[in-house]
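User: Just a sanity check before I run the rest of the batch. Below are the structure tokens for the first item. I only need the designed sequence back.
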């Protein structure tokens, strides 16, 4: 009887811990990412990438992550773009709020290459990215490297509406090979010639967890070349 009781107790403890972890990491919640992206031309072949993302464990509360990213794009041709840039990330890695907890900080350098092509009405984009990650956990630091590949498909429905889908794989270049996989689908609305909004869903899969995220993204790409041109009409 004692042996049976011990086994039952052990199973109950494991079950409670498992359920507790599932509740505490926010996996069962529909979180949200609110995002801004910009690609602003400053010369014939150069543009500046700007980006801000506000990520939450829940739809409108419980902060998870702030991501700020910028970079310089070199447009090799209309269908090929090379980019180098920097990102800052602040992450609250716990679903529950704890007093005096310290968010991890990350400084990230990245290099990426984008190729675009069109098949019938389908617009394809292949994005290849390398990242060098410098992480600060408050009481420890770490340097990590990873590679990312994203294939994206855009289907225009009308001049105003379009569908956007992508799948992105993250590969760690140290330790475990698989990092995460992001599967995304959205309805897009063209507001003007240089701005659009996407409303969609992201399934973010890690080795031991899967997160569902509602997403709203604003894309604003004004041409800034006029600000960098010299005023030839000026005279001394």
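Assistant: Here's the designed sequence for the first item:
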């Amino acid at each position: 009887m004692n042996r049976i009781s011990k086994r039952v107790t052990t199973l109950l403890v494991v079950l409670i811990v498992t359920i507790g972890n599932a509740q505490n990491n926010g996996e069962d919640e529909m979180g949200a990412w609110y995002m801004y992206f910009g690609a602003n031309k400053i010369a014939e072949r150069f543009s500046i990438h700007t980006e801000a993302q506000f990520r939450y464990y829940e739809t409108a509360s419980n902060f998870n992550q702030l991501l700020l990213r910028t970079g310089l794009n070199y447009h090799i041709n209309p269908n090929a773009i090379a980019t180098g840039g920097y990102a800052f990330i602040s992450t609250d890695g716990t679903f529950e709020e704890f007093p005096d907890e310290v968010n991890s900080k990350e400084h990230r350098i990245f290099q990426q290459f984008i190729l675009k092509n069109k098949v019938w009405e389908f617009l394809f984009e292949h994005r290849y990215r390398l990242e060098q990650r410098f992480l600060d956990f408050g009481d420890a630091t770490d340097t990590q490297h990873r590679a990312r590949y994203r294939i994206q498909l855009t289907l225009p429905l009308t001049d105003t509406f379009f569908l956007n889908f992508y799948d992105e794989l993250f590969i760690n270049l140290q330790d475990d090979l698989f990092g995460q996989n992001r599967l995304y689908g959205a309805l897009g609305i063209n507001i003007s010639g240089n701005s659009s909004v996407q409303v969609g869903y992201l399934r973010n899969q890690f080795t031991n967890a899967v997160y569902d995220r509602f997403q709203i993204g604003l894309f604003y790409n004004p041409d800034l070349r006029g600000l960098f041109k010299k005023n030839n009409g000026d005279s001394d």
